[in-house]
Design brief:
Elements (H helix, E strand, L loop, with lengths): L8 H8 L5 E5 L5 H14 L8 E5 L2 H15 L7 E4 H12 L10 E3 L1 H14 L9 H13 L4 H6 L4 H19 L2 E3 H14 L1 H10 L2 E4 L7 H11 L5 E5 L14 H9 L4 E5 L1 E2 L4 H11 L11 E2 L7 E8 H17 L8 E5 L5 H10 L4 E3 L9 H14 L4 H7 L9 H13 L4 H9 L13 H21 L4 H11 L2 H8 L3 H15 L7 H14 L13 E5 L8 E6 L16 H15 L2 E15 L2 E4 L4 H4 L6 E5 L8 H7 L12 H8 L11 E4 L3 E11 L2 E8 L5 E5 L6 E2 L2
Parallel strand pairs: 1-7, 1-8, 2-3, 2-6, 4-5, 6-7, 9-10, 11-16, 11-18, 12-14, 12-15, 13-14, 15-16
Antiparallel strand pairs: 16-17, 17-20, 19-20, 19-23, 20-21, 21-22
Helix pairs in contact: 1-2, 2-3, 4-9, 5-6, 5-8, 6-8, 9-10, 9-11, 13-25, 14-15, 16-17, 16-24, 18-19, 19-20, 20-21, 21-23, 22-23
This protein binds a DNA duplex (15 and 10 nucleotides) through α4, α9 and α18.
Length: about 750
DNA sequence: CGCCGTACGGTTTTT
DNA sequence: CCGTACGGCG
């Protein structure tokens, strides 16, 4: 049978075990995507399951796209109708169609984190909490966690046990209320509300449960409570659920993912069949062994025996750079050399890093070396201000109750409606109990409603009337326009081009982005205008970037470790392999987070097919100031015989530029910051600590210096203390730290 | 009200 | 380093 050819016995079993619950534990590079696509093809072609009765959920849109392509390769037209997408996309679709059953208007907007923040700031005003004392961010993230655990505001309120939770509880209630008033859902709502829909409406639940004869979920280790509940609900009738995951690749717990769902699965779905995919087809033995050396140190994991028939291959290179620029120069230099010699095409290379900010140095180096590259993530297209502004206009046109969008556009471009006027408008609308947009509309109503005189002076009234007039006009016209026509009309009416060109240094680039947006919108030309606008907006909300032109072979890839999950490259550079970067400083608080950093490292390493290079820098500019971090602990966990070490020779002369960057040469407003200079500034080097040194503190006890940085002529050290004290950041001149051996 | 300058603070990862 | 918050001016 040709769908099964070329699969090993375990893979084959994973494809043909189509009855009942199945758990596939798939190590990196084990051909798991192939297994899933072949399984879908097998269901359709061999078992005659109609594609529309199959639901396949992936973790990213990109994965969904790739999977769809592969299924189409196997089945052609026969795959038409298959439901394939992320949980969020699948839920959004269900809510558009059936959300009415629990009172969700089908024109709901989807709020991203910016929108959430805007809304939360209003919430804090409404419940009279000072945003400076409690950070809106932390409230939002607490609420998000509650939602992904399916905790409603009422349930949350019942479990409140301290002051912070008390505030969160009030904020949560008000926040949900405002979302509803705005006819908007945030990302967590998409999941939570769908679970509610399925549990509360028997009719809807039965319909979907009947429909989905087979449910497949990829990257199951990254599901949260809500997603797990969805998977369970949707597969309850037929119980043909196949989940694929690997606890060692769980890297999204900060987003409430819980890899224990993998383990719960076996208890929740009795008699689930477990299939292990342990043969690796991707990496050399050396790379695999190195990665295993790192991951093996995690507690409480099930040890897997990954093996490969591939060659041992090259040793893992460990490179010590002087600083982050030097590190970038090294990677770019090697890649450029390989391109020049024709050894490899640019598409073979990927450079991976822990945080997006690290990409800058790399980009500069790549540009200097004229290496074609694509930057994945970073400031994504739909995150750009000018793009978001226009999207907000469209959202407002589609859904006038959306006050977050209204707030965004009411004075963009500036039309003399400032903070004060907005405040008045908000209060006025609230007093008369209508959405702000409706309140504005009352200003141009032929017959003025009797609900209180508008609290604006003549000049302001004028500005507001002009604004609402413009929007209302475009709204009326919108019914007959395609998305690009609508955008162009809008752009012209608000004179957006002039606003961008005159108002910004990089106006040209911003304008180019606007035009790009119009181009993207043209994909929806064929649909009926209202529906076109709706699907355009939904896609904008759920798809984080514009379809990358798949110019794989033409460009090297710069990517975060998180975003690299699921990908593979012949050559991988992992940069910033230092304490405080990977593992990230924020993960020192808890062993769980530290284990996640380890998994992240493992994920990165196992992306490499043939060659893996790990680099660390002695000095790195972080947030403008240099820090000195020792090499990552993860490097030490790689068996030494598998590695080769390289570094710039120790007497490598620092060029003037990097000296200037490090701040050894005095710069206005900055303090001396090289290690030597700090020593000099503080006096005699007595107090100049280096990472790795053992110290004692009168209160916190014994500890070890994790990292150091200069701060206001003083030295700030991060110290990991033994026992309960944990990690502290201390100023050397105040903290009575002693060296200790 | 909008604009400009300066001071300050915060920086992980993403659907 | 960068974006934003805030204060003072036109």
């Amino acid at each position: 049978m040709d769908i099964l050819s070329g699969l090993n016995p375990a893979q084959r079993e994973a494809v043909v075990s189509t009855r009942g619950p199945v758990l596939i534990v798939a190590g990196p590079g084990s051909g798991k995507t192939r297994v899933i696509t072949h399984r879908i093809a097998y269901l359709v072609a061999e078992e005659g399951v109609p594609p529309w009765r199959v639901l396949a959920v992936t973790f990213t849109n990109k994965a969904a796209r790739e999977m769809r392509d592969r299924v189409t390769d196997l089945l052609g037209q026969a795959s038409e109708g298959l439901t394939l997408g992320t949980f969020h996309a699948v839920c959004a679709r269900m809510l558009r169609i059936d959300g009415g059953a629990i009172g969700i208007d089908r024109s709901f907007a989807i709020y991203d984190d910016d929108d959430q923040m805007t809304l939360m700031k209003r919430v804090l005003i409404d419940i009279a909490v000072d945003a400076k004392r409690v950070s809106p961010r932390s409230i939002l993230s607490t609420i998000s966690k509650a939602k992904s655990e399916l905790t409603t505001p009422a349930e949350y309120a019942r479990a409140v046990s301290d002051y912070f939770q008390e505030i969160v509880s009030r904020a949560y209630a008000r926040y949900q209320q405002l979302l509803e008033q705005n006819t908007a859902l945030d990302f967590d709502d998409l999941l939570m509300r769908t679970v509610q829909l399925l549990s509360q409406s028997e009719d809807v639940r039965t319909r979907y449960q009947e429909r989905y004869l087979h449910v497949l979920v990829d990257e199951f280790q990254d599901t949260n409570v809500a997603q797990y509940a969805l998977a369970k609900l949707l597969s309850e009738k037929h119980r043909n659920i196949c989940i694929v995951g690997d606890e060692d690749q769980s890297i999204y717990s900060w987003r409430s993912a819980d890899y224990r769902n993998l383990l719960n699965f076996q208890t929740d779905f009795e008699g689930a069949k477990t299939i292990l995919l342990e043969q690796n087809y991707r990496s050399t033995q050396t790379i695999l062994d190195s990665a295993q050396g790192v991951i093996r140190r995690n507690q409480g994991r099930h040890d897997k025996v990954l093996w490969t028939e591939n060659d041992r291959g090259l040793p893992v290179t460990i490179f010590e750079a002087q600083d982050d620029e030097d590190e970038a120069r090294f990677a770019a230099g090697e890649i450029a050399a390989a391109l020049r010699s024709g050894e490899r095409p640019a598409g073979d290379f990927a450079v991976m890093y822990r945080i997006n900010a690290q990409s800058r140095a790399l980009e500069e180096a790549f540009m200097r070396e004229a290496i074609p590259y694509r930057l994945v993530g970073g400031t994504r297209f739909y995150q750009r201000r000018e793009v978001k502004d226009l999207i907000a206009y469209l959202r407002l046109i589609q859904n006038p109750t959306d006050s977050v969008s209204l707030l965004r556009v009411i004075n963009t471009p500036t039309r003399g409606i400032g903070a004060k006027a907005i405040e008045e408008l908000w209060r006025w609308a609230q007093n008369t109990d209508v959405p702000p947009y409706e309140a504005l509309r009352a200003l141009i109503a032929p017959v003025r409603p009797a609900n209180g005189a508008p609290p604006f002076r003549a000049g302001m009234l004028n500005a507001l009337v002009r604004f609402i007039d413009t929007i209302e006009q475009v709204r009326e016209e919108s019914l007959g326009l395609t998305p690009p026509e609508l955008l162009n009309t809008l752009i012209e009416r608000i004179q957006f081009r002039r606003y961008l060109m005159d108002g910004f240094e990089d106006g040209e680039e911003r304008w180019a982005n606007v035009q790009e947006l119009v181009t993207v919108a043209a994909q929806y030309d064929a649909l009926e205008p209202r529906e076109a606008l709706a699907s355009f907006l939904e896609n904008v909300a759920l798809v984080s970037d514009v379809d990358e032109l798949e110019q794989r072979s033409a460009a090297a890839t710069l990517i975060t470790l998180h975003a690299a999950k699921g990908l593979e490259f012949p050559v991988v550079y992992m940069v910033g392999m230092e304490e405080a970067v990977l593992p990230h400083i924020r993960s020192y608080d808890s062993p769980e987070q530290m284990e996640e950093e380890r998994r992240l490292c493992y994920v990165g390493m196992t992306r490499a097919r043939e060659r893996l290079v790990l680099t660390h820098a002695r000095r790195r500019a972080l947030m403008g100031t240099p820090v000195f971090n020792p090499p990552s602990r993860f490097i030490k966990d790689i068996p030494e015989q598998l590695t080769e070490s390289r570094s710039r020779s120790d007497d490598f002369p620092l060029d003037r530029r990097s000296i200037a960057r490090a701040g050894v040469l005095p710069r206005p407003g900055r303090v001396p910051v090289s290690a030597q200079d700090v020593a000099a500034a503080i006096g005699g080097g007595e107090r100049n600590f280096q990472p790795g040194e053992r110290v004692r503190h009168p209160k916190f006890g014994e500890g070890i210096i994790v990292s150091t940085r200069a701060n206001g002529g003083d030295q700030e050290v991060t110290v990991a203390f033994k026992g309960e004290s944990g990690v502290k950041r201390l100023m050397v001149s105040y903290a009575r730290l002693e060296r200790h051996s």
